[in-house]
Each structure stands twice: as structure tokens, then as C-alpha cells.
Design brief:
Chain lengths: 88, 88
């Protein structure tokens, strides 16, 4: 059941960009995080990438994470950071 | 006193890279942060840049921040994140 095994590591997120749209972003690491973890989080993402199909789903960006023993530790901003603030 | 005014916005940091060295990194935003703010923080930095002289000091990397009304809000990792973890 390789395909199902693979899906278990994939998260499909709906991300508010702060640019007036919501985007679907597909990320790895589902084996470490519940979907609820992301609710309300101010995550850091690359949004100026070409869309890419991952596990059959079009992903319109990429979350940034530190790689800690192959577990993604997401870059998360303080809750006071406005949605859509640009990384410089 | 333009030069002194400019220096007041510049921070000189000594950053442990997790690659066996410490680096001097010059960052802006000194008007918003005390040097003590950074002590022990797990900050996110670009380290594969060419060294650059800023305010007369060689900087060997660049801290990442969200730009919030021209104030840098530094990308800071959870204290459990190992020093030197790579961003993916």
C-alpha cells in the first residue's frame, strides 16, 4: 500500500496569503503534525513559486521549515505578526 | 551627526552557526531591539552569502525577518530546535 503510506505524510493546507486570496499548499510532515496544529498559525511560506502537483494536488507555495532529524519544524511567526508580512 | 544616527540602527551580532564557527552578522533594527533580545535566541539566517561590509563591519550572513511596518520581526525558532538546523 505504498501510495496510501505516502499520502499519510502529506498535508493539504488552505493558507491565507494576506494578498486577498487563499491558497492550497501541500506540505510533508503529516506523520508529525495533526491538521489542527496549523489552525490560526502564522506560517512562513514561499509564494512566488510555480505551482507544482504533489500527491495529485496542485500546491501553490511551499512552507519553510527547519529540518530536525528529517522532521520539519515549521517557521512560525509570533501571533502579532500581520498575515501577509513579507520576509526580507 | 548622520553617521552616528545610522549606527544606532545597526546591530552587530555574534552568531553560533552550528557548523563549528561563530560569525559576525550585522543587522538593522537596533532602534527596535536591545542586544539582550538576541541572547540565546534561535534565529534564522542566510549563511551562504558573500561577506558584505555594513557600517564598516564585515557581515557574514543575513538574519531573516518579516517586515512589519518597516520594523523587522525576526524569524525565531522554538528553543528546542537544534542550533544549525537547516531550513528546507
Amino acid at each position: 500500500m505504498e501510495p496510501i503510506s505516502q499520502r499519510k505524510r502529506i498535508l493539504k493546507l488552505t493558507v491565507q496569503t494576506g494578498m486577498g486570496d487563499n491558497r492550497t499548499i501541500v506540505a510533508g510532515g503529516a506523520q508529525f503534525y495533526s491538521p489542527e496544529y496549523f489552525i490560526g498559525k502564522k506560517i512562513v511560506a514561499l509564494l512566488n513559486l510555480a505551482p507544482k502537483k504533489i500527491a495529485g494536488i496542485m500546491s501553490h507555495g511551499m512552507l519553510l521549515a527547519a529540518n530536525v532529524n528529517n522532521k520539519p519544524v515549521w517557521l512560525v511567526m509570533d501571533e502579532n505578526t500581520p498575515v501577509g508580512a513579507k520576509i526580507i
